[in-house]
Design goal:
- By secondary structure, this protein is an alpha+beta fold.
- The chain has one domain (3-131): Roll (Nuclear Transport Factor 2, Chain: A), CATH 3.10.450.50.
- The chain is 28% helix and 45% strand.
- The chain has helices at residues 3-21, 24-28, 49-65; strands spanning 31-38, 45-47, 68-81, 85-98, 104-119, 122-131.
- Strands 2-1-6-5-4-3 form a six-stranded mixed β-sheet, covered by helices on one side.
Length: 144
Amino acid sequence: MTKIFSEVYDVLEAYKTAAYEKDVENFLSLYAPGIHIYDCWGNWESKGISSWETTVSEWFNGLREESVLLEVTFNEVVIEKTSTLAFVHCAVTFTGYQEESGEQLHQTTNRFTYGLKKVKNSWSIAHEHSSLPIDFETGKGISD
């Protein structure tokens, strides 16, 4: 594994940890200040870190209130990179577990594309796009 590949993959690992710990500050630290996100859940679009912070805070607060641990798994990860830019596309599975019992509550898989840039020896997510295939008969997203 090349150093650049490893550094980009480390961002994904930090994403998983911050989501599991519901750590808003660490989660947001993975993103560039001018982040632009297209999301298939809740807010259609977030521009800038303050907009994204509102969404992430609501998400993590909801998980806390419902006592849910969120496990994030990255599948079929493909990373294309240069020394300062990287594209990642993958399937991301979000599995919610009841904190006390460990019972699985829900699971969904989305398609994600991340655009990362390296500034001052640190990689950050500059663009994120999540999507679901659409069932043409119902017009609804297919999450698994």
